[in-house]
Design a protein that fits this description.
The structure holds 2 protein chains of 2 kinds. Chain A has helices spanning 2-5, 10-61, 66-82, 108-113, 152-199, 217-266, 272-303, 316-326, 328-333, 350-367, 398-403, 425-435, and strands at residues 87-93, 117-122, 125-134, 143-150, 312-315, 337-341, 345-348, 373-381, 384-392, 439-445, 448-456. Chain A has 12 helices and 11 strands. Chain A has 3 domains: 2-161, Beta-Lactamase (2-Layer Sandwich), CATH 3.30.450; 217-303, Helix Hairpins (Orthogonal Bundle), CATH 1.10.287; 312-456, 2-Layer Sandwich (Heat Shock Protein 90). Helices cover 57% and strands 17% of the residues of chain A. By secondary structure, chain A is α+β, with helices and mostly antiparallel strands. A 5-stranded mixed β-sheet of chain A has the order 6-8-9-11-10. In chain A, strands 1-4-3-2 form a 4-stranded antiparallel β-sheet. A two-stranded antiparallel sheet of chain A has the order 5-7. The radius of gyration of chain A is 53 Å and the shape is rod-shaped. In chain A, helix 2 (10-61) runs antiparallel to helix 5 (152-199), helix 6 packs antiparallel against helix 7 (272-303) and helix 7 packs parallel to helix 12. By secondary structure, chain B is an alpha/beta fold. Chain B has 2 domains: 2-114, Rossmann fold (3-Layer(aba) Sandwich); 125-219, Winged helix-like DNA-binding domain superfamily/Winged helix DNA-binding domain (Arc Repressor Mutant, subunit A). Helix content of chain B is 38%, strand content 22%. Chain B has 8 helices and 12 strands. The two termini of chain B are 29 Å apart. At the A-B interface, helix 7, helix 9 and helix 10 of A face helix 8 of B.
């Protein structure tokens, strides 16, 4: 309910807008209706008084002498007294005998202006009066006949109609405001529901999604975007968790060897030669640990964008040649020939690029069939330089291709040669290329393996 | 050569003291920042090995207090390798830095560089036993036998020969021979050493090129 009082609340704003719209439209309607109503009542009232008056006027016109007048007058006294103060008749004449007194007076000039009509207050009540000049006829002099009729009924009617309109107006506006509020609440209910759902999501249940299926279209987009963000968050969370467990696993083997070997050695007296041998073996394991730690740190810094690039223009072909020069012995030992084709200039940090190329070419030499050629093809594709390393070897299954650049991923699960290959090589390639806003790719078919990257030119 | 080691991790201090002493350095140690700063300002040292994380006063603060009045070369040791740390170290006036975990051989190599104690001073000829290197003609002979070496093999032999009797790590070899200063995770050094050895130490000759398992290689005449 607190939302209602918040100026920023959508419910509040919608309700106010509904009420304002209702007030404007209904007020115009009611004012128009009230005006029409009062006009109608006025016409009705006018007609009624005129009709009544014409009956009296007809009688008076038939009077030609005082005797008739007195008779008529007695009849009128009777009518007026029977009406019990609801009608009054007045006659103004120069001859006092033709005068009828009534508790109201008329102003001939005012009457003329209003076509004979006037308003009168008699005994505190509101009356309408109509006056007309009856010309002289026979012995009867000219006289002004006035009829006053109690307007209380019409006044009352008009008053109650006004009250009814006011009540109607108030009621309608508040009803519409209430409906508006309910509608707004109901429309915004899914937002609250989403908010509740979202607030319950934590790292423990990242797999939960907001229910987007039954949402109104306006909110569907929001929920879907939110779910998309959750999806990415979950993936990165899972990657992180997998990475941590991989790290633990990778470190466990060398640490295990170190502990075991040291314990075995120390449990009995050993010769210096034996001890030296164990120390050397331990050192090899430790070097492996150091290498893993350094590479993981590198990846972690690359992930967080903490590696500053001092990019300069480098020729990919030159870098490939330099890398091939470094790996010459390895290539020769495997009887691999390296064939380079094409060239392209890119902006890159030379040391990082060299590291990526070393990993790629070393990978090709290690996994390629001995005695086959390794092709390095550099081409331009729109705004990108594409470098592809192609070697012959056993096909990489599709499910492995997708994971090839993942940390600690090895195609063959064997741990042979693991001191030189701890499964981070290609993920470092990917990290370096990503730092340079490039992408990596891997394809494999018919014994041809293509791994490479694109870099913006 | 006198070295001051300011480091709070006792095992590290212990092995640094032993290792450096065995290499002919004389070593003073301090295990907290204030002691370290005191020794560094009052003593005369050829180089200071300075850890970043120290109780009392951290490495950067010590460095800032030392510079510019004390110009002793400083080698920083840091566990974090974020760029900011490196910049902070260099801005404060460190001469070089090493990221933990580091190898002792690497530390020795850096120490030699910052104390300018290099062994490759204007030498044009190196003799080790019956091995002779002509660094100008880029020629190597063993006794009467001319060694048929590739350019890289000769460069490798030169690196080892100029550090006669010193263990040279694979990292140093990669950096000096191929100018590559990152972990390559390749077997290039091993493979090149294997080729060099097959040409250098033939059947019946006394071995000159020795492998120190887990550490690196040493070129020397052994009795």
């Amino acid at each position: 309910m607190m939302k209602w009082f918040r100026p920023q609340s959508i419910t509040h704003r919608l309700t106010l807008a509904y009420a304002a719209a209702a007030a404007i439209i209904l007020s115009i309607t009611v004012v128009t209706l009230a005006y029409l109503e009062s006009t109608e009542i006025d016409i009705y009232q006018t007609n009624e008084i005129k009709n009544r008056f014409s009956l009296f006027a007809y009688d008076v016109r038939q009077v030609h002498n005082l005797e008739d007048w007195n008779r008529l007058r007695r009849k009128y006294d009777l009518i007026v007294s029977e009406a019990a103060g609801r009608i009054f008749l007045r006659s103004d004449s120069a001859d006092p005998a033709y005068q009828i007194h009534a508790p109201f007076s008329i102003n001939p000039r005012h009457i003329k202006k209003h076509h004979g009509f006037s308003k009168q207050y008699i005994n505190g009540n509101y009356f309408r009066a109509y006056s007309q000049l009856i010309p002289a006829d026979g012995n009867r002099p000219e006289l002004i006949l006035s009829l006053a009729v109690d307007a209380y009924y019409y006044e009352d009617l008009s008053h109650w109609i006004d009250v009814a309109f006011d009540v109607f107006l108030l009621f309608s506006i508040s009803t519409i405001a209430l409906i508006g509020w309910i509608l707004a609440r109901r429309s915004l209910y899914p937002v609250d529901a989403l908010s509740v759902c979202a607030s319950q999501i934590s790292s423990q249940n990242l797999s939960e999604r907001l229910p987007a299926a039954n949402l109104p279209s306006e909110l569907k987009g929001l929920a879907e975007s939110f779910n998309g963000a959750l999806e990415r968050l979950q993936q990165s969370h899972q990657r992180q968790a997998a990475f941590n467990s991989d790290v633990a696993h990778e470190l466990r083997t060398p640490v295990n060897n170190l502990i075991g070997q040291s314990e075995v050695t120390l449990s009995k007296p050993r010769s210096a030669a034996e001890l030296t041998d164990v120390m050397a073996s331990n050192l090899e394991e430790l070097e492996r640990l150091r290498s893993i730690i350094n590479d993981m740190l590198f990846l972690s810094h690359a992930d967080q964008g903490e590696i500053a690039l001092k990019c300069q223009k480098v020729d990919l072909a030159d870098e490939v040649r330099a890398t091939a020069d470094f790996l010459e012995v390895i290539l020769e030992d495997n009887h691999n020939r390296l064939i380079l084709e094409g060239s392209a200039g890119v902006m890159a940090e030379p040391n990082l690029l060299k590291r990526a190329l070393t990993n790629l070419l070393n990978n090709a030499a290690q996994h390629g069939t001995p005695g086959t050629d390794i092709y390095v093809k550099i081409s331009r594709d729109n705004n990108h330089a594409v470098l592809t390393v192609t070697n012959h070897g056993n096909d990489i299954p599709p499910e492995d291709l997708a994971n090839l650049f993942n940390r600690f991923y090895r195609v063959s699960k064997t741990r042979s040669n693991s001191s030189a290959n701890h499964g981070l090589g290609l993920s470092i390639v990917k990290a370096i290329i990503s730092l340079h806003n490039g992408t990596v790719f891997a394809r494999s078919s018919n014994g041809i393996i293509e791994i490479g990257f694109t870099l913006p030119v | 050569m006198k070295i001051l080691v300011i480091e709070d991790e006792l095992k590290t201090v212990e092995y640094l003291r032993q290792g450096l002493t065995e290499q002919g350095y004389s070593v003073d140690t301090a295990t907290d920042g204030l002691d370290g700063l005191h020794l560094a300002t009052t003593g005369v040292y050829d180089a200071i090995i300075l850890d970043v994380m120290l109780p009392g006063l951290d490495g950067y603060s010590i460095l800032k207090s030392l510079r510019p009045s004390v110009s002793t070369p400083v080698l920083m040791l840091t566990a974090k390798d974020t760029l900011n740390n490196k910049l902070e170290g260099f801005n404060a006036g460190a001469d070089d830095y090493l990221i933990k975990p580091f190898s002792f051989l690497e530390l020795l190599a850096r120490l030699q560089v910052i104390t300018r104690r290099t062994h490759t001073k204007e030498e044009t000829h190196i003799h080790i036993g019956d091995l002779h290197l002509d660094l100008l003609a880029r020629r190597a002979t063993r006794g009467k036998r001319r060694l048929d070496l590739t350019a890289k093999e000769f460069a490798l032999l030169e690196v080892l020969a100029s550090r006669q009797s010193q263990i040279v790590s694979k990292t140093v070899i990669t950096e000096l021979v191929w100018d590559i200063c990152f972990d390559t995770n390749t077997n290039v050094v091993e493979a090149t050493i294997k080729r060099l050895r097959s040409k250098l130490d033939t059947e019946g000759e006394p071995k000159l090129l020795h492998t120190i398992r887990g550490m690196g290689y040493v070129l020397e005449q052994r009795p």
